[in-house]
Amino acid sequence: MYWKGLLHHYRDLLPVSEKTPSLSLNEGNTPLVPLPHLSKLWGVELYAKYEGANPTGSFKDRGMVMAVAKAKEEGYEAVICASTGNTSAAAAAYAARAKMRCIILIPDGKVAMGKLAQAVMYGAEIYTIEGNFDQALKMVQSISKKAPISLVNSVNPHRIEGQKTAAFEVCDQLGSAPDVLAIPVGNAGNITAYWKGFKEYHQAHQSGLPRMHGFEAEGAAAIVRGRAIENPETVATAIRIGNPASWEHAVNASQESSGTIDEVTDTEILSAYKELAREEGVFCEPASAASLAGVKKQVQSGKIEKGAKVVAVLTGNGLKDPNCAIESSSFKAEVLPNNEEAIFDLIKERVKQ
Ligand code: F0G
């Protein structure tokens, strides 16, 4: 069957009417990849929901197709968002497709190169601010109230509607909900969307409910600490957020589902990021690896029981942040003479090591 994207496939479960433009970049329907090697190492049945396979390389496409389509339907000619990078890439792509103006505010120096390249290519108006995501979000919330510009951050309920479809897919791919859904938490929109999706699908199809385990980066762990973090810091720039807009919804999702909101260190994130690529051939961006790092930590502590069926959401593609991959590895380009024999000798040498 030819996949026509989320607004077509899930139209009965989304706020789609005859008036809604049929916007699509064929987003959704992403693979649920079994992780057999990590499963064996960690003693759980582990899968990755690989959201890096979406058209702009992150889960944001699910929410953005819905939010931009509704903005167009409501007569807006422009959309605006604050972003750590992925939201702006997705907003820019769907705005281009819908022939709308796209305005984005991003924190200076903290947006991964791949994401910035996307926003540039899709033709967004990019404003880089001397401030962080939380401050940028406040500004766009205020600007969208003063001007006829639709705010497409995840405080826009249409974003949550679009993103809940990932939970539907997980249930269909596994045959039912997993025991645990592990997910990175930044602004907390996605954990909110997944929980809504699991509940709706369970009502309609008795698909069961997972425990929701959200993971913040230690240097940005506002929910875990119970207070906003003024200057959040983490290598996982996508979740470098100190005052999550959907804070209460995230707490609610974890409590209602008997799950947890926990934190992982940058060291744990980078270690899971590398282990996933080396062991399984799956490359995600650093923030995405927070979900896996969290699973590893909680299996070790016993919070996740051995044998549990666990789905870790890998929210973004590894190619989004090539600098992190190179800088966190010991790789150094070593230029050799243009001589096959010398190269073969080296290759043989390395086998012995
Ligand atoms: N993973 C990635 C790769 C992200 O880009 C984000 C959020 C998250 C996880 C966290 O999701 O905010 O719904 O809890 N990125 C936003 C952005 C903030 O601007 O791209 P959340």
UniProtKB/TrEMBL annotation:
The record lists pyridoxal 5'-phosphate as bound by 86, 186-190, 315
Q: Which UniProt keywords apply?
A: Amino-acid biosynthesis, Lyase, Pyridoxal phosphate, Threonine biosynthesis
Span of domain Tryptophan synthase beta chain-like PALP: 24-316
Note the CDD domains from the entry.
Answer: Thr-synth_1
Database matches in Gene3D superfamilies: 3.40.50.1100
This protein's pathway: Amino-acid biosynthesis; L-threonine biosynthesis; L-threonine from L-aspartate: step 5/5
Which top class of enzyme applies to this chain? lyase
Q: Which cofactor does it need?
A: pyridoxal 5'-phosphate
Membership in a protein family? Belongs to the threonine synthase family.
Q: What is this protein called?
A: Threonine synthase
Organism, as annotated: Alteribacter keqinensis
